[in-house]
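Researcher: Can you fold this with zinc ion in place?
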Amino acid sequence: MCDFELVSREEWGARPPKSTESMANPVPYVIIHHTYQPPACSSTEECIKAMQWMQDLHQLQNKWNDIGYSFVVGGDGKVYVGRGWSTVGAHSPSYNNQSIGISLIGDWRSELPPSRQLDAVHNLIRCGIEMEKIKPDYRLFGHKQVRMGTECPGDRLFEEISSWNHFSTDPPFVWVPKKLES
Ligand SMILES: [Zn+2]
């Protein structure tokens, strides 16, 4: 069902989240990011270092609960678990509690990620639909469509995702309930 290699938090050496807020599935949105920093990684060893670097930045410096993204995809073609399918993320204000945020490690302003990295994103989304974590009629956006002032996910990657089936040019205004936990 899920045709990609998943790297668990334990496998990449994540610290536990400081706190978690559960998210209802299936979600209607998928939001694509690039990390910008850290730069692209091609070996699993490098990608693990990138994951740890981001968790340090998000959790220790930014004082968030955990690494912000739901999932992160490396240039090694593997999918790294961030907050996962059912925990509210910290990647796109107004959408955090109803989207899966997927970040591609690297700076994708002028270059396209390698095909194995893009393939892993497609496989992850397909898997999310099959597991009923993502709605089959989900809409996909680049981060800059829902947040003023960011160039994320980079022009070249944005051009790429613009051709994907579920890409939408019309992100709706999203009402954010204060709490989604039961
Ligand atoms: Zn972003």
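Model: Folded with zinc ion in place. The pocket of zinc ion is lined by residues 33, 143, 150, 152 (CB under 6 Å).
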